[in-house]
Every structure is written in C-alpha cells, then in structure tokens.
Amino acid sequence: MPDPNQQNNPVSSQLTVLVVDPNPVIRTNVQNMLNQSGISRVEFAVNAGAAVRQLAKKSYDVILCEYDLGGPGAGGDSQDGQQLLEDLRHHKLIAPWAIFIMITSEGAEDKVLGAAELAPTDYVLKPFTAGMLGERIARALERRAALLPAYQRVAQGDSRAAIQACIDGATGKPRYALDFARLRAELHASLKEPAQAEGVYRHVLAARPLGWARLGLARALAAQDRVPDAIEQLEALIADNPRLMAAYDLLAQCRVQRGEHAQARKTLEEAVAISPHMVRRQRRLGEVALETGDAAQAEKSFRQVVARSRYSEFRSPEDHVQLVKALVRKGDPLGATGVIRDLERSLRGSPELVACKAMAAALLHEAAGDKAATVGELKQAAHAVRGGGMLSSGMRIDLARACLAQRLDDEAAGVLITSMGGDGDGISARQALDVFVQAGRPDLADGMNRQLRAQAQILLGVADEKRNMGDVRGAVQTLLEALRMAPNSLQVMIAVAGGILRQVMEMGWDEGLAALCVAQLEHIRALDPAHPRLQALDAELLAAKRKYGIST
C-alpha cells in the first residue's frame, strides 16, 4: 500500500504519476502537460489490465485515467475507467488517500454517473489545458496533505490516533472540516462503533443535508440493527437524490436482511436502470433474482456480469456457474451448455476453473435427471476444493448443499471443513453447522461439531509450540484458526485473548487484534463471569493500553 507521506510543495517533481490511456498521442500530450507543471516521473498503462499489473507492483501518487479505454492501443476489448476504479477499490490496490482523476469526454449520462458513484478524486473533462490539469492535481494534493496526519495513523494501524488527528485537523484546518468528519465517521464504523459514527453524521447533518452524511447515517443505523430506521432514511434520501446509487445498494441490503427479497430486487432493478455499468450491482441483482425465482432477470444480470468482467484481471468463473443456474431454471439446457464451453475457453488457467466447471455441469446433469453424472461432477468439484481450489464462501456453501442433496455426506463435510481457514472469505463454524441443520441432518452437525473441537484442541498445541519457539505472531494466527473452529469454547477464547495480549506487549499495539481481544473477554464474561483467568486478562489489557497511551 502506498506511503501517504508527501512533500509540502503542492506539485513536486518527485511526484509519480501513472497515465492510463490507450491512445499514444494522448499519452504524449498528457506527459507534456505534466512536464510543464514540473512533474517528470510519469509512467503509462495502455489498458486496465496493464494498470492493475503495475499497481500490484508499485504505488503512484496520482493516477490519471481515461474513461474510454477501448481506443487505439488497448488491445481489443477492454474495461473502461469506471470498471478499473471499481476493481482497484474493491481489491485494495490503491490506498484510501490515492489520487485517482478520471479524464473523460463521455456524454452518456449513465456512464458518467457510474464513474461518479465510485468517487474518483476529481474529473477532468476534455479538452483541457496544462494549467487546468496542474490546478486539479495541486488541489487534490493540498487536500491530501491536510488529511496526512490522520492518513499516517491509518497506515500504521492506529485508528484511535487517526480519529484524534481528525478532531485536531478539523479545528486547525476548518476548510477541510467536512473531510475530517467523514474520515472520522468511517474510522468509527471500521472499529465497529456505529453509535459514534452516527453521532458524527448527525453533527454534520445539523449544519448541511449532505448526501454522503445521510447515507453514512443510514449505514450506522443498519449496523445497530435499526433496519426500519435505516430504510426510512434511505427512502427519503433516494427521493431527494435519485442518482445517489450507493443508497439503492444499501436499501436493497436492508430489505434482504428483513427477508423482503422481492422489494430488494425491485430496488436493484431501479438502480441498474439508472446506472448499468457497476458490475457488483449487476451481480447482486442476479443473486437476488435467483433467490426470488426470477430466472429471466437472473440470466439477464449474469450475462451482463460475464460480459463486463471478461477483460478484468479479477474475473471469476463463479459468474458462469450462476448464469448456468439461471438458464437451467429457465429450461434452456442448450444455452447452459454454451456457457460451460465459454467458461472452459475464456478462463483456462483459473484456480477456480475445475470446481466451477464441475458445479455447472452438475446443475445441467441434475436438470436432465442423470443422477450418476451429477454425483460424479459434484465429487470432482468437492475434490478440487479440498485440494486447494479457490471458491467464495457462498459458492462453497452451495456446493456443500448440493452434495448433501445427493447424500454425499463426506464430500459436504470435507468442503466445509476445508473452507474454515483463516482467510477473510472463510466459512465460520456456525455457518457450516447451519448447512447441515437446514438440510435436515442434525446428526452430521453434531459430528462436525465434535470434529471441529478436536481440531481446535490440536491447534492449541501447535500454538503453544510456536510461542515456545519465539514465534509470537505465528502463535496468534494459529489461535485465530482454532477460534474459527470452535468460537464458543472457553478454553480457546482464553487462549486467544492471552495470545493477543502477549503479541501486543512484545510487538506493538494492533487495533484490530485489540478489538478482537476485547470481544473475546466480553464473550467469556457473558458465559462465565467468575472464570479464574478473566480478572488477570482484564489487568493485562489495561496494562497494554497504558503502555501505548491508549485511552481507557
């Protein structure tokens, strides 16, 4: 992730700029304009894929990106600038403080709107001069410099200090008070403090009815399980700002949370009609359509997703599986067969390909009533996942359910247990057990629960060995795996809290681990308030906070 430290000079010769444009003439013209502003460290990418690969290797101070990336030199079809920005933000290839400026002459309202909702730092509309470009960059750098103290704390993992820097910054640099307030509220939200975030948003709204603050307030309300209040806020926000697209996404999410899938689908359809170029919204509409039995809408949405993702560095064969599912439900086996052929052809070499192809083929065979072929494909998919094949947690749960439907109990259990690693998209023990319960197999749930507790016990021993060898950080990572296996085990919770506190005392304050430690202590307190280790762990946490000057 880029280092936010920058020079005091608003436009410096030390700045690094990545220009993303397929047209060599435009690239040369932009470079000349940057040179006139004293910026000489300029590199180029001819399309979105090249930009992703460069940003994966190094960071840049400024990214200047042409919206239409399908021009000369793009190498055929390509993502546009809006899709590139979506990928960069979602996959965290650019830091929150990165300066991303969209260059466009695009007149189509829905496309410009799509770029707007992804909040690039600024726009430059063609034609523009060197002075205009330099002014936009200088303005963006000035804003980032003001927010620098807070950004530095964020980069160091100290969200509490970043919040204090926002408070101080709003007082010392009132011109950017709203920027500080927004960042402060987002930091509270990241710390799972929605009530504090709500307070910041309400303070902003008391002065100005800003759309982003109203949206943030709705998010804070939803995070506090005040979903009806959030829906009321969002409906009013959309009525006043019908082109604030993120409000539709959150409203749909709230309606799904309440089991109102038909209303959620309607909300997403309205959003897609206004701004059809956001891939993840199209995907979510397809998912909700499948949940509500609307195979035609699901097919339409996933065809859009597959088409728009085709040239993304992050395309996923799971979208093809969902499209096959929609076509099978529509009774179109020929179309589903074509999608499977396209899956094999266009995603060759993908680590998810074997599992996804087998899952898609299983759907087709099941629809045709070929049980033997269905079982064979599901076994192949389960084997691929257990061998390290990458799938999202939702797709792994779908695979486990399909296996259970065919009485492939061992395969279902293997998929779920293999999927309970320490990655961010792993399946929790509760989710895994729920799969068996919902399938009417409480016997399998009981057996898995015993197996998970046994594995957690083994991991506690591994963590002890790592700690004895001086690998404190490795011990904590192993303990976190044990916690994922047995989240309600007092023994595991005690070990996790103690391991985190040991790492913090020896290796420095870590906001995320500290928050997890506090959560474990509260969980222990709820289950056994008289536990003999609880008082000592509370004292260790207090000592760690005092050591690092953390407010208690």
Could you explain how this protein is built, in words?
Helix 3 links the parallel strand 3 and strand 4. Helix 10 runs antiparallel to helix 11, helix 11 packs antiparallel against helix 12 and helix 14 runs antiparallel to helix 15. A 5-stranded parallel sheet has the order 2-1-3-4-5, sandwiched between helices. The N terminus is likely disordered. It has 552 residues and is mainly α. It contains 26 helices and 5 strands.
Structure, briefly:
It contains 26 helices and five strands.
Topology:
Elements lengths: L15 E5 L3 H13 L4 E5 L2 H10 L4 E5 L14 H10 L8 E6 L4 H9 L4 E4 L4 H26 L3 H14 L4 H14 L3 H14 L3 H13 L3 H14 L4 H13 L3 H14 L4 H13 L3 H15 L8 H13 L2 H14 L6 H15 L3 H16 L6 H13 L3 H10 L10 H10 L3 H27 L3 H14 L4 H18 L3 H17 L6 H14 L5
Parallel strand pairs: 1-2, 1-3, 3-4, 4-5
Helix pairs in contact: 1-5, 2-3, 5-6, 6-7, 7-8, 7-9, 8-9, 9-10, 9-11, 10-11, 11-12, 12-13, 13-14, 13-15, 14-15, 15-16, 15-17, 16-17, 17-18, 18-19, 18-20, 19-20, 21-22, 22-23, 23-24, 24-25, 24-26, 25-26
